[in-house]
Amino acid sequence: MPPLLAQSLPRDPLWRAIFRCLAENLMPIAPQALREALVPLGTNADRLEAIAERVLHTDLGGEDALLQPIIASALEVYWTSMAQSLAITAITPLDVGSVCPCCGFLPVAAVLKSVADFANLRYLHCPLCNCEWHFVRAKCVSCGSEEHVSYRFLEDEAGCRRDDVRAEACDACKGYLKVINLEKSGGDPVADDLATLTLDLLMDQEGYGRIGPNLLYIPGNA
Question: How far apart are CA 43 and CA 16, in angstroms?
Fold first, then answer.
């Protein structure tokens, strides 16, 4: 089992202090609706923990959608700090290669990067603890299919293909995951995922669903 399993690991109250710090810094620039939601939450530990449970079980959206990205940000800081303190020997490969071996979350995206003498290796990136783990290319992260994988790209007005971020789609399970070439984008997987929401809309129109969530983008009620 992952050593920092998100769904069952007892949480130190420290994460709530991280949330309060984020909330205080957001107050001057937050929309009125968000400010009104954040103020009572700062002193209501029970509700804060209840929403955190929903986030960690990826029960996203609904009446808490406005608050969930802020709470997710605090949990990300907390889990990333714990992950950094682990010895590398504490993290071992899982039988299910699509799951984060550190915290058990599904990946937000895949990244391509060079390691030592090997170019364009694919690593999956965790949205909670920011760990990355190797996963072979041209294979569906969700179902393991190698025969039904295809790619979708965004194009600019001139018809030039944007190849730093693409969507890897599987017709076997109808899931997709973005693949980000860090040597071309030079960015952050979570931020690059948010910056290409147009690609998500197009994939949704074609009937594909995300394999893993981005905890900082929660659309809310339809």
Answer: 10
